[in-house]
Specification:
By secondary structure, the protein is an alpha/beta fold. It is about 30% helix and about 25% strand. It starts with a helix and ends with a strand. The structure holds ribulose-5-phosphate.
Length: about 230
């Protein structure tokens, strides 16, 4: 295992220490949080923890099943005790860009429904300014694709419709929508940009997670750093 995988795993192990008996937990998506899901599964078996998970994607649902974590939905549990998720980029204010895995809408809904939102990442995800070498994924209703993208361009974004790798045509999300990856370069005000994007008709959700993360565990080459939002 290379150092980045070790770093992701170390960060995830710290996050799983927040899991307590009786918790309902939002389970994020991606390769980093997959280590946390595996560890939660181990604790369910070894400590007989009575917990429930709310998966944020089909992939995570299958991982939860694989590791023996009982699942539920927001219908039964609209208020979560904890959510753990990865990120594509974060800044020192703990604002995030998420969605390279395409699960941003469910991830943001789950993050908005929890008492504590804990993020796991390796150190390569830290940026002084969000948007540096990182697109902002935006989930868009297919009907609105032409109009929404031209409005994103009008506010300074370079847009690319995300294409599928093993299928012709666009990526279709778990919600049946498209993902537009938008480059803005360094983002001076992530909050303002998020508001502008949210105001575009047909935008379902953006990958900008502003003032949502409570803690980010950052795996480095040798250790784990804990950053907390002030
Ligand atoms: C998926 C996400 C993921 O959390 C993000 O892409 C990080 O993934 P990874 O841990 O594989 O780098 O936002 O929509």
């Amino acid at each position: 295992m290379g150092w980045r995988e070790e770093a992701k795993k170390r960060a995830s192990m710290e996050a799983v220490k927040h899991v307590k008996d009786g918790f309902t937990i939002g389970l994020g998506s991606g390769s980093t949080v997959a280590y946390a899901i595996q560890e939660i599964g181990k604790r369910v078996q070894q400590e007989e923890l009575r917990i429930l998970g709310v998966p944020t994607s089909h992939q995570t649902m299958m991982l939860a099943v694989h590791w023996g974590i009982p699942t539920t939905t927001l219908n039964e549990h609209p208020q979560l005790d904890l959510a753990i998720d990865g990120t594509d980029q974060f800044d020192r204010q703990l604002n995030l860009i998420k969605g390279l895995g395409g699960a941003l809408t469910r991830e943001k809904i789950v993050a908005s429904a929890t008492s504590q939102f804990v993020v796991v990442a390796d150190q390569t995800k830290l940026a002084e300014k969000l948007g540096t070498d990182c697109v902002v994924p935006v989930e868009v209703l297919p009907f609105a694709f032409p109009t929404a993208t031209s409005k994103m361009q009008a506010i300074g974004g370079k847009t690319i419709l995300r294409k599928a790798k093993s299928k012709v045509g666009p990526v279709v999300t778990d919600n049946g929508n498209f993902i537009v990856d938008v480059s803005f370069g360094e983002i001076s005000s992530p909050k303002r940009l998020d508001s502008k994007l949210q105001a575009i008709p047909g935008v379902i959700e953006t990958g900008l997670f502003i003032e949502m993360a409570d803690i980010v565990y950052v795996g480095t080459q040798t250790t784990v750093e804990r950053l907390e939002r002030e």
